[in-house]
Amino acid sequence: xxxxxxxxxxxLGLDTEACRRIGLRVMKVGCVWPLNAHDARHFAEGLxxxxxxxxxRQILEYALKEELYNxxxxxxxxxxxxxxxxxxxxxxxxxxxxxxxLPAMAELNPAIVAKAIAKRLVTMELPEDxxxxxxxxxxxxxAKERETARPRVTAERKPWFCSGCPHNTSTRVxxxxxxxxxxGCHYMTIWMDRNTNTFSQMGGEGVAWLGQMHFTNxxxxxxxxxxxxxxxxxxxxxxxxxAAKANITYKILFNDAVAMTGGxxxxxxxxxxxxxxxxxxxxxAKTIVVxxxxxxxxxxxNRLPAHIEIVHRDELDAVQKRLRETEGTTILIxxxxxxxxxxxxxxxxxxxxxxxxxxxxTEVCEGCGDCSKASxxxxxxxxxxxKGTKRQINQSTCNQDFSCVNGFCPSFVTLEGATLRKxxxxxxxxxxxxxxxxxxLPALETxxxxxxxxxxxxxxxxxxxxxxxxxxLERKGVTVLDMAGLAQKxxxxxxxxxxxxxxSQLNASKIATGEADLLLGCDAIVSASQEALSMTLSGxxxxxxxxxxxxxxxxxxxxxxxxxxxxxxxxxxxSIGSNCAFLNASDLALKVMGDTLYANMMVLGxxxxxxxxxxxxESLMEAIELNGVQTEKNKAAFLWGCHFAQFANAQEFLxxxxxxxxxxxxxxxILSFNKQWLTEYQNAAYAQRYEQTLEPLRQAxxxxxxxxxxxxxxxxxxxxxKLMAYKDEYEVAxxxxxxxxxxxxxxxxxxxxxxxxEIKLNLAPPLxxxxxxxxxxxxxxxxxxxxxxxxxxxxxxxxxxxxLDVFGHSAERKQERALIKSYSQLIxxxxxxxxxxxxxxxQASLARFDxxxxxxxxxxxxxxxxxxxxxxx
Length: 873
Known about the structure:
The protein is of the alpha/beta class. The protein is built from 31 helices and 23 strands.
C-alpha cells in the first residue's frame, strides 16, 4: 500500500515540494497491530483529514479511529479509508452505506489510490496548478476506465490443462453426475465442461457434501483430489466421509508429481500400492484403480491386493457409473504420469522417448471437433484448407497421450516407430550488427515502464528477467513483477518491468493505468486484453505485437471458433494509436531459426532497434550469456528482430499478411474448385449435376439484383458440395491413397513412410465394431496392411449409390443421400420464391447445413442440431 501511495502521489504531480505546499504528510506504519499510539497521535496533530490506505479489511483504520476518538472535535481530524463520506458522515455500518473509496477486496493499485486521494483533495483549497495536475491525472484514469469497459470481440486466454494432461480425461463425470473441486491443477475444471463447481481448502475436499447431502435430491457426488493434497491432508476428508456414511466417490488423481508448481516430487514417499492400502484401511466401500497401462501392475513391485480392480482408462465412464450406484464412500484412483513431468524427464534423458506419433489426414478430417471433445487437448489446432477449417496436431507441443484418437473419425493415423522431423531454418544470409545503425535510446529522466504480455510457459518471464539483469549490469534501478499464477498453464502472463536511473525513483512494482511506455506483445490476444490495454496511453505507449494466430482453449469447446485478428488490431490501435507495430514473430522464428521458441527474443530485438528500450545492446547480450540457455541462438533471434525493425522486410520471408482479413472467394472460383473436387470424388456427370442444381438459385439472385456477389448462391455452392462429397468408405480410401498424404508424412517425420515406420489406421468397420458404455461405436487400430488396401478400395467408387454398393445400405449412407435430396429441394424452392423481403431467412436456411459434420453418431447429432435450427428459422 505504501508504494502504491508514493506512486499515486507522483502521478498526481505531488512531489515533496508540492506536498509541503498543501500540508500533506505520509506516515508508513511498520506494525499494523497494535498501532503505536504515540506515533499516531504525533502524526495526527494539526491535520484536517487522514486517509488510511491499507490492503483488504480496515484493521489500521479502526485502530486509528479508536485512538483519536476522545480528542476534542476542533482538533480531531476526520478519518477516511474504505468509505467516502456523505456530509462528513457514514462508514461501513451506515444505512444507507457510503460509497466505496478504497475496495476491501482484491488488490490496490496506483490508479485506485490516486482516485481516492484526489477525491479527498478536491474538497479542499488547493493552488490552481496543483488542482489542474490532479484533475488531469484523474481525467486520464477515468478515460482509460471507460475505454476498457467498452464491449469488445477479442478472445480470452484462459489457463487450461497441458497437452496430454491426465486431468483431461480423469476429471470427466458421467452424464447426470456432478463433481466438487479441490486445490491443484484440477481446480481449472470449474470453467470447463466438467459439471464441477465449488472448491475447498486442502483437506476439505468433498466435506461440503457431508452437510449438503441431507438437504438435496442428489444421491451422490464425485470429488477430485490430487495425490499431493491427499498426502498433505486429504486423507482426513476421506475419513470424515466414511464416518458420515456419505455416498461420495473420491477420484484420487495419482500423477507422480506436484505438477502445478514445477513438477516437485510428492512430500515423503507415496506409491500407488501404499495409497491403495491406506484407503482400504479406512474401510471405504470400494476401491478401483484406473490407469493408462494396466499391465504394469502385474509386476511384483507394483502388485496390488488381489481384490482391487485394475481397469484401463478407456473404461472410465463405465467405472464411474458403477461407483455412483455403490452405497457409501468409494475410491477411484486414476493413475497416469503428469504430461509436463513426462516431457521434462524425456528432455533430461531420464525417460525414453516414445517412438509413436499420431497424425491427422486433413483431407479426411471433417472439422467436427470430436477429437477435441475426446481429448480436451490444446495440441489439436485449427488449420485452414480450401474445404474449410480442419484439425491438425501441433507435433511440437504434443505429449503423446493419444486420447485424441478416441474421437470418432477415420482421419487419425498411428505412426509406429516414427521420429518427428525437426524444422530446419531457411538457408538465408544471417544479418549483422554492422549493417544496423545504432538506435537513439530513451532518456531516463523519469522511470521507463515496459509491459510484457504473452502465454504461460513460452518464456515471458525470461524476457522480463533479461531486461532486469541488463538494467542491473548498467547499475540502474529496476523492478520486475511477473503476474503468472495459473497462467503457466497456457493462460495470460503479464510481466511489469520498470527502469530508472536510481532505485529511489521507483515505487509501485506494478505499472499504473495509462503509464506503460512500451508494450512488448508476445501474444496478440493477451496484448489486447482489458488489463493490458488499461496500462497503455495513446501518444505515449509504443507497441510491438506478435500477430501469430495461437488458438485459445475456446477452440476445444467451440469448433467454429476463429482467431479474432481484426478486432485485436482495432482494439490495439484504438488504445495505442499509430505507434503500434505488428510482426508475425512466431512464423518468422520458425522460418529463420527453425523454432518458434525464439519469437519472444525476436520481439525484444525489434523493440530495441526501434529505440524503445533504455538499455545498451551490450548489456542485453551479457544478460543472455548469464542466462546460459541457447545463448548463440537467442542472440541470433535478437539480431533478426533488429533486422526486421530496421529494414521492414519481414513479409519477404512470409506469405501471409499479419492480421489480414481472409478474402472471400467469388462464386466462379467456388464453382470451379468444387466441380473439380466432385469430378475426382465421382465423375464429371456428378459435377455437372451439382452445377445444374445451383443454376436456378443463381438466376433468381441475379434477377433480384440486391447483391452482385450472390451470397445465397455462394453459401449453397459450398454446402451442396460438402453434402454431395460425403465421406463413405470409398472416399476415405481415395483420400488416403492420394500421394499428397505421403508427402505430408515425409515433411513431418524422419524416414520413408511405410518402411522406416509403420502406418496404422484407426477405424470402426460397421460389422466389427465394439460399443462403449453410452452405446457409441469404438474405433480399433488396424495394421499397415489395411493402409495398403486403400488404393484398391478407392477404385470401386463407381459402385457408390448402386445396388452393388455394399456400404451404401447402412442407415448412415441412406441419411447422407437423403440430405443431398433435401438440400437440392431447398435450393429449388428458394429459387422459386426468393424476394427482397425473405433473403435473410433464405440465407439462414441455407447456412444451417454448414454445421453438419463428422462421422457416425457425431454426424447424426449434428444433423439433429441442424433440424433444431431449421425449426427456429
